[in-house]
Amino acid sequence: MALDETIKPEAETGTSRLNAIAAWPVRVLFGILDVPFRALQRLLGIGSMPYFFILPNLAFFGLFVVVPLFINFAYSVTGGTNLFMENRPYVGGEQYGFLFDCGNYLDPSTCREDRFWRGVYNTFTFVFFQVSLMVLFSLVTALILNREIRGRGFFRAAFFFPVLLSPVVVALIWKWILLRDGVLNAFLVSMGLDPILFFVSPAWAMFWAIFVSVWAHMGFYTLILLAGLQAIPPDLYEAAEMDGTKRERVFFRITLPLLWPNMLVVIVLALIKAVQIFDEVFVLTGGGPGTATQFVVQYIYTTGFANQIQNFGLAAAASVVLGVVLFVLTLLQLAASRRKDEG
Fold first, then answer.
1. What pLDDT is stored for residue 3 in this prediction?
2. Which of 27, 153, 278, 280 has its CA 20 to 30 A from that of 214?
3. pLDDT grade, residue 9 (50/70/90)?
4. Domain with CATH 1.10.3720.10 in the chain
5. What is the CATH superfamily name and number for domain 115-342?
6. pTM of the model
7. What stretches of the chain show up as alpha helix (H) in DSSP?
8. Alpha carbons 277 and 127: distance in angstroms, whole number
C-alpha cells in the first residue's frame, strides 16, 4: 500500500511536467500578445475592446455583403449592356417596371418578362410542396429517432449525412440514378418495365427536384426538431400515461404545443432555403424541360451572366425583389426565435 502511494505522486508529477512542457509555447505566445493588447486596452478602455475584436468580422461582412448590396441596387436603376457603371445610363425604375408589367399576374404569358414570372410561379410551387414535405418528414423522422430503438445513433447519423454533402455532389448522384441509362431505369428494365424519361416530363422533373431537395436537407431540420423533443420534460409523458391518455391526444396536447417554437423556426428556415433554390436543381435538370424547373435565382443567373446579351440591370432588379422577399422571411425568423426565447 505504501509502495502504491509512493508511485502515484511520482506519476502525477511526471504528468504535470509533460503538461507544463506542452503548455509552454502557448504561455509564451500569450505573453507576447499580452503586451500590445494591454496597451490597446489602456488606450481604448475596457468597454471598447469587444468592438475591436469583432471589427475584422464587420469589415469582412461590409466588404463582401453590404457593399455588393448597394452596388447591386445601383445596377438595378441603370440600363444598357456595358459592365462598368460609368458607361451605363440611369433609367430609374424602368427595370422594375419591365418586370412587373403584366396584364394578369396569374398568367405569366401576359407579362412582358414572362420568364421571370414563370420562375416566380415555379418557385412558389416548389416552396409550397418542398417546405410542406420537409416539415412533415422531418417531424416524423424526429419522432421516430427520439424513441428507444435499436441502432438509434446510426440512424441519426445516416439521416444527417446528406447535409454534409455539397449540393452539387447531391445533384450529380441523383442525376446518375435518374438518367435514361441510370440506376433506377436499369432496375425498372430488369423488372420488365419500360424506362421512364424523368427529365423530359415537366411533372417528373419538378417531382425529383422537390424530392432531391428534401432528401438533401431533411437531416438538418430533423436535428432541430429532435433537440426540441428532447427538451420536453419526461414527467409530462409519465403523467399522461398514468392517466391513460391516448397517444394521439398526447401528441396534439403535449408534444406539438411544446415543440411549436422549434417547428416555427424550421418552417421559416426551410422557406428561406427553398426560395433561394438554385444549385441542386440547376445541376439536376438545368431548369428544364423548357422552363418547367427554372426558378427565380436561375432566372437572375441566366439573365445577368448566361445569356448571349447580358442584361445586368434587369438581373439586379430581379435580385432586389428576391432580396426583399428574403428580408421579410428573415424578419419572420427573428420574430420566431424571439418568441421561442420568451417562451
1. 45
2. 153
3. low
4. 115-342
5. MetI-like (1.10.3720.10)
6. 0.83
7. 2-44, 49-61, 67-76, 94-99, 114-145, 152-164, 167-178, 183-190, 202-230, 234-242, 247-250, 256-275, 279-284, 296-301, 312-342
8. 9
